[in-house]
Every structure is written in C-alpha cells, then in structure tokens.
Amino acid sequence: MRQVDHFLAESAGGGGGSGRTHQVWNPSTGEVQAEVALGDAALLDRAVAAARAVQPEWAATNPQKRARVMFRFKELIEANMDDLARLLSAEHGKVIDDAKGDIQRGLEVIEYACGIPQALKGEYTLGAGPGIDVYSMRVPLGIGAGITPFNFPAMIPMWMFGMAIAAGNAFILKPSERDPSVPVRLAELFRDAGAPEGLLQVVHGDKEMVDAILDHPDIAAVSFVGSSDIAHYVYKRGVAAGKRVQAMGGAKNHGIVMPDADLDQVVNDLAGAAFGSAGERCMALPVVVPVGEVTANALREKLIPAIHALRVGVSTDRDAHYGPVVTPEHKARVEGWIDTAEQEGAEVVIDGRGFSLQGHEKGFFIGPTLLDRVTTDMTSYQEEIFGPVLQIVRAQDFEEAVRLPSQHQYGNGVAIFTRNGHAAREFASRVNVGMVGINVPIPVPVAYHSFGGWKRSAFGDTNQYGTEGLKFWTKVKTVTQRWPDGGGDGSNAFIIPTMG
C-alpha cells in the first residue's frame, strides 16, 4: 500500500513521529488506497528547528529574489497541472475539471505573491519635523503555520504559504489527513523552484498535531480553515498562546432570487454552485431564496429537470458534473441531514439517498437532492450540510430575503439574482455577510482582494490573501530618524564626507 510521509528538511530527520497512521480512501471505488503517517509534538519540534534555522536568511533575501522563486514555482505548477489534478481527484473525489479549478485558484494567489516587492513597500514622510523623516516597513513574523481542510487540498495551502513565504516567513503546513498527497507534492515543487531546504515543510496529523502547532512557542501565527466549532477552538487556543490567528469556519450561503431574475441563468448557476464538487465547498450555494410564491414555483419547475440532468460519476469521468464525497463517514453524515430535513417537515422533491453508480457500488456517491418548504427553525437549515443538497427557503418579500442571511449564524457568502440595480445595491449595502455576489453565484474574490466571512464563518480580524493576507503575515516597524546638520563638532557646517 502506498505510504504518504511528512515533507521535512533533511536537518529535521526522517521518521513518522507517533507511529500512528490514517487511511486515505479512493472515494470513487470505496477502497483504501494509501496510509498517511501521523506526526506528534516531537516531530513538529524537528520541523520548527529546521524552519528556525533557515528563516533569518530567507527574510534577509531581497524581495526580488523571493519573487523569482515564486515565479519558478508558478511555472512548475503549470507544467505539472495534469498530474496534480489526477492525484487530487483520486484522493478527494472531485472531477478533474474541479481539481484543476482548485489548483488554478491557488495559483492565482501565487501570481499575486510574485509581486511581493511592490506589495511590501512601506510609507515615508519627508520632513515630519525639523530635519526628521519617518518611514515604515513590513517585516516577517518568523515561522507561520497553516491547518487546511480536505475540500481544497491545493488552493487553500497555496493561499496560506504563498503569502507567508513571499513576505519572508518560513512555513509549516498541516493538511487534512483525508487527502494529503497534493500538499506534499506542492512542497516538493516549491523546493524544486529553488526554495531553501526547510522553508516549506509538511507535517501530517490529527488533533494531537493541531494542538502541538497551537502551543508551540516558536510558531508566531496560525491560519486555519475548517468547521466553525474547530475554528473557534483553534482561535481561542492559539490566541491564548500569544499567537496571531485567523480561523475560517463554516457557511450556509444563500442565493436570493428576485422576481425579475433570469431564471434560466439562475438554474444554470445553481447547478454548478450547489452541486459542483459534490457541494463540499464553503462557498457553495446550498440555500436558494426565491422572493414570492410565483417566483418560487417557477424556479422549482425549472430546477427539477435541470437537477435530474446532472451526471454523477467517478472522478475521472470527463462528462460527470460531480463525483463522490470524500469518505464513507461524510456520505453517512450528508444522508443523515437529508433524513433530518424530512423528519422536520421539508419536502424531499428529489432524493439522492441510496444513490449507486453502476460498476462503482462501493463508492461514496450521493445523488443530487432538492428540498422545498424548508423553514428557518429546521436544524437542516441552521447547520452546514456540505454535500450535494439544495434547499428552497421561500421569502415573501425583499425585506425577508435580506433578513434570512443576515440573521443566520454563518456569514460567509451570499448572492442576489436580479436585473434591478437599485435592489442589488440596497441588498449589498444592508446584508450582514462578508462576501456578496450580484448575479455571481460563488463570490470568491480575486487574488488581489481578500477572502473572509463574518460571524461564525471567521474568527480573527484579518482575511486570507491579498493585502489583508500580507498584513496577517507581517508586522509593521516604524523608524523616526534625524541626521545632524553639523560635522559632530557642535558647528552647523554642512560637511559631506570625502574619500582619502
């Protein structure tokens, strides 16, 4: 059986740390395809020591040279795109096109990091006082760490380590143990791009490793993406240990459909936003909110045939719209949420439970599911399902449509579909959610903006990537300087030193 080990600097030594392992499934076949070594605090200590040894020299490397490593890394990712996508699909289950999208969105942040010389420019005030100038600079924190989820094993690690390393930090990545191979491959390619040994290391583990990272005195900052309960735990424990922490949590993104919306376009958008990547995305659109009964009935009528037309297939099926979910436990969890919704009174319009793909009956497949008449008191509405399930929550008017996402415990993303500019502007201004799409179903900002939700979708004050990411991975040093006019003898003579 294939083994997935840690990626450590040579000075950190080999070995798997705890001796414990975790199974890595092939979601399309339902078979175990690999085992990943789980590390412990002692292994982390070795990784931190290697990072500590290399980071000062990297921080002293001028930004242009750091950017050149990022450029070479970008080229290597592009050259290895097909192999990376196949590896990602085999462990996660998402289809090849989704896997390439995962890699590409991470690569866009690497492209932004290639501009680090410009991004790191500080501020300068000439003549802040008599003969006094003031300037600021952004300096690295030292060693950063990232704890990333299973659903984007390429994109989210690159969001984190791209910005952190370009800014002058060393980085230790702990990816999900469910699909660990792509993060290791990214670290190998980063080394091949010319990064010093130990600058980017990958350690695998479960809660034991997470706690070791949060408690380690030499790790200055931690970035996390995962469920909200764990995000809150990471934030509290990391801050208590004196670290800078950004912890992104769960989501329940709403899509508001106004009566004037282009329903054909809405249905097309929902097919991808709700069911793409089997709904295993924190920016998926699992709740659609049609405004008015006429809109709701018309939308439902168009959704049913569109959802029936979705093709579920193995991750390598080029014609499939989405593949299996990541593990058997996650399949059971999602189907349990459908059970709960039905018990709570939701109408199961299209039922994906018990879906079986011919020839792959052991795979972790769930058919696309449509639930109608969902109400806000249902736990299936209040909590994140994270699967190929679309819920219809009917709103009577615009005010209710604004109120629903604004009052939900999560505040990651929201979208509104309308032809009315005033309605869109009013909605974007008033809704209590961190990222808003206007006729855009998945409003993930481009790399030179930043990603981050509100409420229980994010803990901490700084967002991912872009200028916000740069602020997170650096601290400001401000210098106030004055040079005397004289030559040191008490005179006011203006003397320019000469050679000889």
Give a structural overview.
- This protein is an alpha/beta fold.
- The protein folds into two domains: 272 residues, 3-Layer(aba) Sandwich (Aldehyde Dehydrogenase, Chain A, domain 1), CATH 3.40.605; 185 residues, Aldehyde Dehydrogenase, Chain A, domain 2, CATH 3.40.309.10.
- It has 16 helices and 21 strands.
- A seven-stranded mixed sheet has the order 13-14-15-12-11-17-18, sandwiched between helices.
- Strand 11, helix 10 and strand 12 form a beta-alpha-beta unit.
- It is globular.
- The protein starts with a strand and ends in an 18-residue tail after the last strand.
Gist?
39% of the residues lie in helices and 20% in strands. With 500 residues, the protein is α/β, with parallel strands linked by helices. It folds into two domains: 272 residues, Aldehyde Dehydrogenase, Chain A, domain 1, CATH 3.40.605.10; 185 residues, Aldehyde Dehydrogenase, Chain A, domain 2, CATH 3.40.309.
